[in-house]
Write a structure and sequence with these properties.
- This protein is of the alpha/beta class.
- The protein is about 40% helix and about 10% strand.
- It has 14 helices and ten strands.
Amino acid sequence: MRRTDPEEGHGPVRYGPPLPGDGLPVLPELSAVLCTAASRSDAHPVGGAPALLEAACGYWTRRGLPCAPDQVAAGPGAPALLVALTAALAGDGADVLVPRPCPAWWAPYARVLGRPAYHVPTPAEGGGVPDPYALLETVRRVRAEGGSPRLLVLSVADDPTATVTPPELLHETVEAATAEGLHLVSDETWRDTLHAPRDTVLLSPAEMWPEQVTVVTDLAGSLLPPGWPAAVARFPATDAGRRLHARVLDILTALGARLPAPVAAAAGYALDEPPPVVGRREATVRLHARVAAAAHAAVVAGGALARPPQAGRHLYVDLGPLREPLAAQGVTDAQELEDLLGARLGMPAPGGHRFGDDLAALRVRLATGPLLGATDEERAECLTSPEPLELPHVHRALISLRSAFADLRDDAQRWEPPR
């Protein structure tokens, strides 16, 4: 498993995998809206047309975050909005803080703008939100070294760990961050994908400190296919929030980051949450929750560690307990583990180093979408089946996953000294 090409070394990973897709065919009603708008030749305005902004306001108001259209901006995916926010908030010499681990696309935008991104450890019970004491220590250290931390990016429903931060921990972290004068960007892409919504409490930082939190939602999380990039941002209803909104629109204009009119039409339709969209979202969440639970059981039975997934379409697996048998196969870091599992599973298994984790830590993110089948017909069947885990193609995929981790477990047991 050792790499021989010097161009494929183990240097810093700057770019990583995209959001885990749902693996399902496009909702027909969404396709119809997009196709109807495809004949339009006019360009969509930067930041979003009034109808789209009104739809975004309705979406957030239904979630306890009321807003007006002049507090909202739309862009071609959350990465475009985040780079504009980072440039607006930290482009003048300020520094950026992110959790460890965090989505693979957060830190690169700070680096593109010439700003360092400082990773702050997350607590043992979940990812996406830094430990409050670690956050305060990191802020103190950065300032002592001459830095100026000003922006914290976090996510209550997290990629890559698939966990949801408890409200009490979120409150402590947000309180610490706002006391230090940090502006928060809350990535809420996965908030509508809770596996047990009646048993999981999800609060937005914007509900706690609305004056210092900008919310970003990528519609690929639960409303649109990943190939139709669209995202919306909600800014604070303050003078500072209005200035930030205007600055972000300036940057989006300079980048030419506008939504294609057909995608904007589909985004507005989806944000209104008509019955077909809500029904598909609920069915998709139920499906991925069941597959994620089965995948979690498989990797834990194989001797790996993983927090039970609570949201999204993925899980984060730590193979540290299997380090010795993995080392015997030439796997000593996350890149080599990514190569090994990707080959064995026949699906992407991006290493934790792509999410800001230590290269030496044997961690990977596994997505549930590839377990749903190889064709649109197979994946669509998963949505309508009362027992999707018993479908032959899903059953085979889960057996393959269990087998791969069982082989690693058996190797580990052979390495154990006799009792």
